[in-house]
Amino acid sequence: MKLDFDCVIVGAGIAGMTAAIYLKRSNLNVLILDNDAPGGLLNKISSIENYPGFINISGPDLAYKIYEQVNNLGIEIRYGKVIDIKDHQVITDLETITTKKIILAIGRKARKLENTNNLKNVSYCAVCDANLYKNKTVALVGYSNSEMEEALYLADICKKVIIIGRGKEFKGEETLADRIRSKENVEIELDCVIKTLESDNDILTKIITNKGEFLVDGMFIAIGYEPNTEFLKDINKDKGYIIVDDKMKTNIDYIFACGDIIKKDIYQLTTAVGEATIAAINVKKEINN
Q1: Which of 205, 221, 237 lies at the terminal end of a domain, its last residue?
Q2: Is the pTM of this model over 0.85?
Q3: Cα separation of 249 and 8, whole Å?
């Protein structure tokens, strides 16, 4: 049976696009599938300072540069939500695609804060929504590296940023913490737990914590990420993260995985790129054997 593609890559983030570049340059017939814009979570990062080759670059700019490479190579990108994978078939809400190999590079989704679903002025993306709160007071829930980058971005736009962190100390790069502490319009509240959110007509107005009450015009949530693998029924996982071997291969012979969706110790852009490279090279080896 002739299959549609040599390899289908599920996910158009930095890992998925990297794998596609390697496979296409190896003269394989590759497809990228996603239900969002190329770049994934990169598009929600305001500033990146630890990616080789760039002193500072925004997430959307880095995503676009990688997309330009993908586009220049003529790699096809299709859009659709993947709802199942079985028997060398990738089934989306729009079509069914057959393929020799699959690389899962789905990434992760932002973890939601309880009791915020109906609130209109709660956001999970500073890059997307910061301008809605220009010269206003906002809260940022979270206090690790990615959250601090969000805080720096918000501080340049908002009148005041109140950081609410559950931990007793900053977890991340000290240089980021120093930059945050130097911002006069940033208030840091650590060991701070949200007790109640008060709203008026689904608009958040007050955050009540163990450290006091804070009047806000909006709130940004940055409390980490979680895997989005509920639809993968037969793949071995640990707390939702896909288990792979040193070749980025899952327990299913024709399926590989890379990037933030796999179980690992370090979640960084650079590790995602490395894992995508390993997955792509091993896919090529298996197809050529």
Answers
A1: 221
A2: yes
A3: 14
